[in-house]
Amino acid sequence: MVSASKFTKAERELQAARPFGYGPRKFYESSHLVKGSVDKKPGDEAKGAPAPEPPKPEDVKPEDEKKTKRVYVAMTSDRGLCGGVHSGVARRIRRELTERKAEGATHKLVCVGDKSRGVLRRTYADNMLINVKDIGRIAPVFADASVIAAAIAESGFEYDIGEVYYNKYFSPVKYEMTIVPFFNKFRIERAPNMSAFDDVDEDQLESYSEWTLAALLYYALKQGAASEQSARMAAMDNATKNAEEMIRKLTLLFNRTRQAVITRELIEIISGAAALK
Amino acid sequence: MALTFAAGNKVFYDKQVVKQVDVPSFSGAFGILPKHVPTLAVLRPGVVTVLENDGKQNKIFVSSGTVTVNDDSSVQVLAEEAHPLENLDRAAAQETLSKAQSEFNSAANEKAKAEAAIAVEVAEEIVKAASA
User: Fold this and answer.
1) Residue B1 above 90 pLDDT?
2) Helix, coil or strand: residue A59
């Protein structure tokens, strides 16, 4: 019941956050920073169409791959008891890091929430950049995303490409691990279709990319919160069901024992009375 | 021209077709009509005016954010906080402004000073928007 009401709230608030994810992705598409269209209808995916390729930046050649500085943002929370929501994100990042033979200097991790940190800190201690705690107790607000974005900006790590790993919420029974990229201002400046855009001042572009990161983080936080609450609702429902069965068994045992005690006392009283005659 | 206008608190327009959008940005306030050249801009505190297709004008105050005009002539305005002009309370804004100003004067370091300066700027704009 508690998690159900929290879930309803998270889902409602997610509605307001959706454009925050749509806006930046639309820009990436029109500036050709990433391939693929964002204007797909949600129905296309539901029909079992092949899952969309994780957006790959177009202008990265394999030889650059080693030099590209990447930052991975794991969007989880501090709280567990919600199925595989957090471990899914952490596992995916671990796989990517292993595949890219990530070195500590060029691949950095930003762990939002204690759960991803707990999984990743042992194997990838060198890659840790920032840990963000106290996520998930109350519903995330835009200020939380701003704080994380500011921490990334102030960390002094100059990334080329960033990726936010989060659980995208579809329905109360479905969420999916999704990756959304973000870029620094130099990448945006060099975007293939940037020439179509009007000239933008350097500092404006910097503010723009920083603000966009905050917007994306906010979007991912909200998506993550909704997925987490939906998963927790299912987990809690199962817990209640399991407990019900246990309660039934224990109540039966309790009643039997109680009756046994009453019967014994009655026998004692009766046999005592009979002995007095 | 499809306008998406959202803030942390509310979605105002979701890919809705409108006639014109006026936004305040750090490179100056500008109006966006269909087939505007694609551009990026950072919003400054001020009033966004949306002229809907039926000629209705909608004025919304925004604190900060970004505006993106894409090459398919769709516009995304993302704001941190946004409220319709009629929801602004002038007295409360005045109060916030004086509080922000005193904070600005007592700010100890550069960062606190910059933060207070932003607060003053936002409050000033709210007062201006609310009294207009």
Assistant:
1) no
2) coil
Q: For B71, which of A18, A30, A207 is closest by C-beta distance?
A: A30
**Does residue A240 lie within any of the structural domains?**
no
For residue B49, the cross-strand partners are B22, B59
Q: Is residue A276 part of a domain?
A: no
Cross-chain Cβ contact B39/A212 below 8 Å: no
A199 in a domain, yes or no? Answer: yes
Distances (CA, A) of A133 to A26, A56, A182, A191, B27: 30, 29, 22, 34, 37
Average per-residue pLDDT for chain B: 88
Contacts with B41 from chain A: Cβ below 8 Å? 200, 204, 208
- Please give the model's pTM, rounded to 2 decimal places: 0.84
In eight-state DSSP terms, residue B45 is S
CB contact under 8 A, A211 and B64: yes
So where are chain B's domains? 2-85, 89-131
The candidate with the shortest Cα–Cα distance to A167, out of A78, A92, A64, is A92
In this complex, do A204 and B27 lie within 8 Å of one another by their Cβ atoms?
yes
The ipTM of this complex is 0.88
Residues on chain A bordering chain B, Cβ-to-Cβ distance under 8 angstroms = 15-20, 22-24, 26-27, 29-30, 141-142, 146, 193, 196-198, 200-201, 204-205, 207-208, 211-212, 215, 218
**Nearest chain B residue (CA) to A29:** B70
The per-residue pLDDT for range A65-74, each reduced to its tens digit, is: 567 788 899 9
- Burial class of residue B43 in the structure, from the number of CB atoms within 10 Å of its CB (0-12 exposed, 13-18 middle, 19+ buried): buried
The class of domain B2-85 in CATH terms is mainly beta
Average pLDDT over all residues of chain A: 83
Domain enclosing residue A170, as ranges: 2-234
Structural domain includes residue A244: no
Give dist(CA A66, CA A70) in Å, integer.
10
- Look up the CATH number of the domain holding residue A75: 3.40.1380.10
Q: Which of B11, B63, B66 to mutate to test the interface with A (most CBs of A within 10 A)?
A: B66
Number of domains in chain A: 1
* Calpha distance B1→A168 (Å, rounded): 28
